[in-house]
Amino acid sequence: MANSVAAPDGTVHIKVTELEADSACPYPIKPSTLNLINAEKDADGLAKHGGAQGLAKELETDLHQGLSDGTGLDSVEAHKNAYGANTFPDKPPPNFFMMLLEAAKDPMIIILLVVAIVTIILGAAVPEQRAHQGWSEGLAVLGTALIVIFIGAGQDYSKELQFQKLNALKDVIEIKVTRNGKQVLVPNSEVVVGDVLFLDTGDKIIADGIVIDSQGLVIDEASLTGESDPIKKDAASDPWIRSGTTVNEGSGHMLVLAVGPNSEWGKTMALVAEAGDEQTPLQEQLTDVAAKVSKAGVLVAVVVFLALLIKWLIIHKGGDASKINDNGPLQFLLYAITITVVSIPEGLPLAVTLTLAYSMKKMMKDNNFVRVLSACETMGGATAICSDKTGTLTENRMTVVEGWFAGQSYSQVPTPAELTPGLLELLQWNCAMNNKAFLVDQENGTVDFVGNRTECALLILLRKLGIDYKACREQRESDQIKLYGFSSARKMASVLLREKSGDLKLYNKGAAEWVLRRCKALLRPDGSLEELTPQRLEEMIALVTGMASRGLRCICLSYRDYAGTDPSRPADFFEDANEVDNDLIAYAIVGIKDPVRQEVPDAVRTCQKAGIVVRMVTGDNIHTAKHIARECGILTTDDAIAMEGPVFRTMPAAELIPILPRLRVLARSSPEDKLTLVSLLKKQGEVVAVTGDGTNDAPALKESDVGLAMGIAGTEVAKEAADIIILDDNFSSIVKSVLWGRCVYMNIRKFLVFQLSINLVAMISAAVGALYGGVPPLNVLQLLWVNMIMDTLAALALATENPYPELLEDTPHGRSEAIITGLMYVHILTAAVYKLFWLFACLYGLPRISKQYAVLGETEYYVTMCPEMIKDDFNSTATINSVCNIMAYCGFPQGEWDRQTTACSLYPQWVPIGVPGDEAKAVCGSAANQTITDCQLLNDLNTAQKTMEDKYDREMLESYKPALSVLFNAFILAQVANAFVSRRIGLELNFFKGLSESHIFNAIMLIITGLQVLIMQTPISYIFKVEPLNGEEWGVCIAIGVGAIPFAWACRILIRYLLPLTRSADWLAGLRGSRASGITASGASPMKQAAQSKTLSGRTVSGQQHKTLSGRTMSGPHGGAGPAVRTSMEITPVHGMTVSSASNPAKVWTASGQPQGPVGECATPKRLGSGGFGDGSLKRVGSIGSGSSRVVPVSDARAPSPLGNASRPESPMAWGTNTQLR
Predict the structure, then answer these.
(1) Structural domain range at position 674
(2) Which residues cross the membrane (predicted)?
(3) Are residues 217 and 234 in contact, defined by beta-carbon separation less than 8 angstroms?
(4) Does 171 participate in catalysis according to the annotation?
(5) What region does 583 belong to: left with phi over 0, alpha with psi -120 to 50, or beta?
(6) Is 14 helix (H, G, I), strand (E, B) or coil?
(7) Which of 815, 821, 807 is nearest to 742 (CA)?
(8) What DSSP state is assigned to residue 931?
(9) What value does the mean pLDDT take over residues 1165-1177?
């Protein structure tokens, strides 16, 4: 039974859930049966049910029409109810209680809690301590520590919820399905059993099923099986398709058999834990900073504890166990631990997490979906962007605007009447059948493109010619023999159809210059053929060049007839597209316009101002690419270089590396070229961002520092390999990702400046307070409040600051720049100096200049407060007055200078010698012969002295309270002001710019200020050991706090005056050193040295062979299929001169080292060594193949076609190197 399981002991366990699903299923084939056939890949079971056609019938679906949107058994809803939805069980939400436990595991927090509890116990158990609420401070510390734990857990909980929501979006993709006879896009979660899916190269498969039809369908199942070799799928030999796999090549349709938990991927998902806990590079860097600061904090805490303990032991003559919890060792330990807690900047990793989470959410609104957390921060340091052209720089709304049709050129799309019926038929079948795209007509009259945009443009062309492409496909679907998909290597795609006569016809389309070189003839208007001679080929290439120079993408349409049967033809002849696509007949070349996005030129200029080099990497013709690059502002300078992929990949490393800084356009490039470019740029120290949309772009996306996949045109393979998905395929969205990346980095730096200045102040003040004497400036609770401000609230405030345009005016921070710059150190020190000045002024200066804040001295204490302090020890007023006089004026312990005067009550007894220094002799007087124990006055004095000593520390600390209250309030308000100053960490003077948009920051500053008012002016002040302030004191505190802002202005103005460089992009560079964007070939010495004798593949150039970028051996024009490669170049420093002359021939050397004849000249020729370059603009001279090549500056619009004298190559790869290098 499919819904039962036999146990080892022989008992049978019934799967109740499956039984219920089967009983509720209205279809002939039950879920358990279908799942079993799918899970076991049961070929016999599949055949028993009639294969795909039979299963479709039992599932009430149609292999051509698909499911319906109605309410019957053929509806999507009915299938979802019967077989389940394509969703997986949600990951359980984070548990707040577990978050609390995690937050409480911090070692310092644990120690703090333990010491606080011990303090509470001792304070409540010892009567003397209980009388003075000795337990209150421990209770307050315990409560504050618990608040810190709850806030930390709450932030972690909120962060996890937010990341969970963002991660859920990663798995939402659009799927092409057939519904109601139409191809539509639906989210993967809406796919159900019985759906007919269309699969294309690069698609991610999201459900299990079987192949209905296959056009060279090859599936990569490595994610499930671990096998690296892709597997060919077809309906006969291997129809089983699994979710979680990807389409490597080809296309086809599949019938969905299992979704959600019943699919192979669904079963695997339950066993695989989600990744994402690893730290980002910025978090790792900040963890290192936090560790160093923490070590310093621990050192200060140990010094403070030892200093206070030694002082206490000296005062108490070796210690007093009864005083251990009364401003004694226990309080010292609590204070030291608090210093450690404050000094540990645990808010740093929290700030990174907060700003990344906040930025990810905001970036979604800017059409940047972040898949990899670290990409946020890395994008801010990008120094180079390698961008696709189509859809990224252009609108990707391609339209055929002109063309050449059967020998006649048209400046606009011809009407059907202008074309012959035979030509219309060729266009009809090529554009409709050699095409996997489709159009979706919206109710508002607009048309959405689905699939390759070039193919969509051809479908629109058919509509303009009055042809219904859907009807064409339905009519000839059964005639389709094989579909050869487009590949970047072939630059073309074909379809093989069977004609009514039984013969075969191949319809081909592709890059015009590539297809033309595979053609043998051209179609004339009358239907006859014209041989494509070399001269005629040059004319056609010139036609293509002219169209391309106007920014048009040129697509050539061609065909070839094959006999239905040919005994001389190999059996596998039609398996090799390179064999099939030869001796073609061209009948049309269409020019497709794809306008540049309106916002792109400004976005490119913004990148260039930001120190980011933008390069266009495209598969288009070099003339089209240059035209678009000029429109975008990429190709602007005279020394900028545009190069073709075939030239790029055959250049030796020694020649390529020096010109890379000027390379701006790489046309006719392959994915391998893009990967090579990215790798080389990274080796030269650049931080590279790369865009990609195709399956073959995945390696370059992975190799780059930040991979940017296109959300609309990108394949699922490309999206899986990317770090960020650009949802609108727009280059301006990439610029926004750079802005957000810099914002992340800047927000962390703001927080660092803010927090480290507090760390510095806390540690210095604690150390001075302990070593110099007096009292610590901030007590335990106050330090914990400061810690809460800077670690939690400030992290939230500064980490959620929005980006501002000025961030793009500075150069990128690059790959190796330290997180803390020289200017940041200046800001940290100046902020700390300001706060320390006022802190010590309040602590030591205020008591000396104002009686209101004067600290109780010992003399004053004994003179003025003695009767009050000892009244509980004696019943007699006379005794109290007597002992108080002795303690205050007789030198026991105060009044040593007064003992020889009548102020001392003992003086008259010892006239004329004065009061003796011996206490017993002085006090007992005439009873000197008695023992000390028999002298009542001496006993009373000792009792009084002990009481006074015990109470002095408490009274002295109480007298400090007015000054410490002002200090504490001014310090917190200075921190609030410093938070505003920290919003700009350059030399900017406007700290309030954009403040109206920083709602979270403003709210948190108001919360901190409000809480501070509550602490100072309500009964809470008792817990914090401060007293309420009056209006005048508040005014002084506010003035001191706000004064941090003009002080920061003064320091920045001084720095500007002292620094010779004052502009925003320069002063920062002046303080932090050279920038990564300044790295050129000359700066990358290791690479340059390696390049002198090696290619990029690392192979040595020597002997008869010459290695190219791809590692191929080029042996000259007669030694192989490839062209000759130069090992020496002619360079001219003369700007603007066309390099072309026969009167003074230059030489180009082949790999064998022999000159190949006159090919051009330079105005002031200079022979260099292998791979050498001069000082001027690069001008290429040289011959490749049999043609000549002339090079002009990029800005010269009169550049002749580089293909003018070219002969047909032996292969498409060999052709294409015969181009100009700009």
Answers:
(1) 368-394+597-729
(2) 108-126, 138-157, 296-314, 334-358, 751-774, 820-846, 963-981, 1001-1024, 1036-1055
(3) yes
(4) no
(5) left
(6) strand
(7) 807
(8) -
(9) 34
pTM of the model: 0.67
Mean pLDDT of 271-288: 55
Q: What is the pLDDT of residues 884-907, one digit of tens each?
A: 998 999 988 888 888 888 889 888
Residue 674: strand, helix, or coil: helix
Whether residue 311 is contained in a domain is answered as no
Q: Does the residue 556 lie in any domain?
A: yes
pLDDT at site 214: 86
- Render 284-324 in DSSP notation, one character per residue: HHHHHHHHHHHHHHHHHHHHHHHHHHHHHHHHTTT--GGGT
Six token digits for residue 969: 């309030």
Instruction: Give how many domains the chain has, as a whole number.
Output: 4
Instruction: Identify whether residues 382 and 526 lie together within a single domain.
Output: no
536 to 405, 526, 530, 873: CA distances (angstroms):
16, 18, 9, 124
> Alpha-carbon distance 1116 to 23, whole Å?
74
- Neighbour tally for 1099: CB within 10 Å: 17
Q: Are residues 562 and 426 in the same domain?
A: yes
Residue 983 is encoded by which pair of tokens? 């919003």
Nearest CA to 88 out of 257, 260, 242, 222 is that of 260
* β-pair partners for 201: none
Planar angle of CA 582, 583, 586, nearest 5 degrees: 105
At 1133, the amino acid letter reads P
Q: Are strands 240-241 and 208-220 parallel, antiparallel or unpaired?
A: antiparallel
Catalytic residue among 388, 697, 791, 898: 388
Q: Does a structural domain hold residue 767? A: yes
- Among the ranges 438-452, 560-574, 1091-1105, which has the highest mean pLDDT value? 560-574
Cβ 991 vs Cβ 981: under 8 Å = yes
Q: How many CA atoms lie within 13 A of 763 on its CB side?
A: 24
Beta bridge partners of 483: 495
Q: Catalogue the E-assigned strands of 78-181.
A: 174-179
Main-chain phi, psi angles of 38, to 5 degrees: -70, -45
Residues linked to residue 81 through DSSP beta bridges, in sequence order: none
CA R_g for the chain = 42
* CA dist 1 → 4, 7, 36, 124 (Å): 5, 13, 10, 72
- Tell whether 1219 is covered by a domain: no
| Distance (Å) of CA 792 to CA 198, 352, 467, 476 | 51, 12, 66, 67
Single-letter residue type at 677: L
Are 401 and 413 in contact, with CB atoms under 8 Å apart? yes
CA–CA distance, 904 with 889 (Å, rounded to integer)? 5
Give the whole-angstrom CA distance, residue 240 versus residue 225: 14
Residue 220 and residue 161 in contact, taking contact as beta carbons nearer than 8 Å:
no
DSSP label of 713: T
Whether 272 contacts 805, CB under 8 Å: no
**Residue 1047's CATH number:** 1.20.1110.10
Residue 802 main-chain phi, psi, to 5 deg: -80, 155
Tens of pLDDT, residue by residue over 649-686, are 888 888 888 889 999 999 988 888 888 899 889 888 88
pLDDT of residue 588: 95
What distance in Å separates the CA atoms of residue 1080 and residue 124, rounded to the nearest whole number? 72
Q: What percent of the chain has pLDDT over 90?
A: 21
Helix, strand, coil percent values for the chain (each to nearest 5): 50, 15, 35
Residue 866 contacts residue 887 (beta carbons within 8 Å): yes
Residue finishing a domain among 254, 273, 292: 273
At 334 the three-state DSSP class reads: helix
The lowest-confidence range among 31-35, 69-73, 586-590 is 69-73
The H-assigned helical ranges of 773-821 are 780-788, 794-799
| CA-to-CA separations, 1154 to 297, 1123, 1126, in angstroms, rounded | 71, 15, 10
Any residues with CB less than 8 A from the CB of 238 and at least 6 apart, and which?
A: 211, 231, 232
Same domain, 541 and 620: no
Q: Phi, psi (5° rounding) for residue 954?
A: -65, -45
